[in-house]
Design brief:
With 311 residues, this protein is α/β, with parallel strands linked by helices. Helices cover 26% and strands 28% of the residues. The chain folds into 2 domains: 184 residues, 3-Layer(bba) Sandwich (FAD/NAD(P)-binding domain); 119 residues, 3-Layer(bba) Sandwich (FAD/NAD(P)-binding domain), CATH 3.50.50.
């Protein structure tokens, strides 16, 4: 059994930032990157809204720089997946790849969330080349263009309104006869002149060889197919937080996001802290994830100092 002072589960802006702060505090952090080292930004092309990069930066390159900084400061970064935990005892136990047990004095959860996708082949083929799951992140690249967005909830309505401010036209694809969004959000959509809502409509295929050229949609009542010329295709059908292994011990909301104490990264388990998209369903931005990673490391440092003082 390996003993660790500070274990960080997950990478991305939250995990790497937590590692940077933990390493500078001499907490000797060990970070496991998970199945997607670098998180969702590794499938993003250009990032223009992160401070400090006046000319923008490619998502994978940015995450590699985060990683190098964490390593330079002393973080032990490993490839591996946390497959189960036991937070009923202290020190805290985390199993990596089902066979390596770590006994940790503090744990920082930075496992993020995964966007839900429609499951059509072209969606993944053109991901980052016109297909996106974050309008706030990527909408700017389609300024003055025609775009489409799939979804019927508050997030989809909010992102459609955001896109409408910068795009020429927004086509909203809704599978059922009505939206699930709140009445207030529905009214915002209805009162935005350059948003067209297609009800009883589902996406058949995103068209384009190297970039998005159009979307082919199908009317669910008549089965009629039609093509809509667009340059950007946004999926806003929700996210799934990567938190299932923590469910027996950590308090989650009804969507699976980790609940943290007010103005804190502390969870309901002493010594366990959460940051990034695993606990943030509102903002979901790289810069806010990094900020929460800083918070988690500072909270973990204070916890360890207090814990050692009482021994």
């Amino acid at each position: 059994m390996e003993k660790v002072e500070c274990l960080i589960i997950g990478s991305g802006p939250a995990g790497y930032t937590a590692a940077i702060y933990a390493a500078r505090a001499d907490m000797k952090p060990v970070l496991y990157e998970g199945l997607q080292p670098g998180g969702q930004l590794t499938i993003t092309t250009e990032v223009e809204n992160y401070p400090g990069y006046p000319d923008g930066i490619q998502g994978p390159e940015m995450m590699e720089l985060f990683k190098k900084q964490a390593q330079r400061l002393g973080t032990d970064i490993r490839y591996g997946l946390a497959t189960s935990v036991d937070f009923s005892v202290y020190p805290l136990k985390v199993i990596i790849d089902e066979n390596h047990t770590i006994e940790a004095e503090s744990v920082i959860i930075a496992t993020g969330a995964s966007a839900k996708w429609l499951g059509i082949p072209s969606e993944q083929r053109l991901n980052g080349s016109g297909v996106s799951a974050c309008a706030v992140c990527d909408g700017f690249f389609y300024k003055g263009m025609d775009v489409a967005i799939v979804g019927a909830g508050d997030t989809a309505a909010e992102e459609a309104c955001y896109l409408a401010k910068i795009c020429n036209k927004v086509t909203m694809i809704v599978r059922k006869e009505a939206m699930r969004a709140s009445k207030a959000m529905q009214h915002r959509v209805e009162n935005t002149p350059n948003i067209e809502v297609l009800y009883n409509t589902e996406t058949d295929e995103v068209l384009g060889k190297f970039t998005v050229d159009a979307v082919r949609v199908k009317n669910t009542k008549t089965n009629e197919l039609r093509e809509i010329p667009i340059s950007g295709f946004f999926v806003a059908i929700g996210h799934t937080p990567n938190t299932s292994i923590f469910k027996p011990y950590i308090s989650l909301d009804d969507q699976g996001y980790i609940l943290t104490q007010a103005d804190s990264s502390k969870t309901n388990v002493i010594g366990v802290f959460a940051c990034g998209d695993a606990q943030d369903k509102i903002y979901r931005q790289a810069v806010t994830a990094a900020g929460s990673g800083c918070m988690a490391a500072l909270d973990a440092e204070r916890f360890l100092s207090e814990h050692k003082a009482t021994k």
